[in-house]
Amino acid sequence: MSHALTAIAAAHWAGPFFGPWFLLVPLFWILVFVVLFAIFGRRWRQRAMDGGYGPDGGVNPGRQAETTLAERYAQGDIDEVEYRKRLEVLRANAPVRPGR
């Protein structure tokens, strides 16, 4: 009789919750969060470096205009005098962003 009770207790405690599945369920969820962070974390960090979220976040138009101007100068479309003149105008008319 005692062997039967021991077998029942062993079967109960060695059920699906305390077998190898007991360790695999938390590992599965940890893996899910790691994959999500790997996919979206890079986008969140890049977006934060580009100016953040919100109505005034995102691509900085002044920086984008300076980049386009520098590319035109590098390709030879404009000379140095024209480049410096336009760059000065861009920087003089750049909107002041609050909090920066």
From TrEMBL:
The keyword Membrane applies. This is SHOCT domain-containing protein. The chain crosses the membrane at residues 20-40. Keywords: Membrane, Transmembrane, Transmembrane helix. It comes from the Bacteria. The lineage of its organism: Bacteria, Bacillati, Actinomycetota, Actinomycetes, Micrococcales. It comes from Microbacterium kribbense.
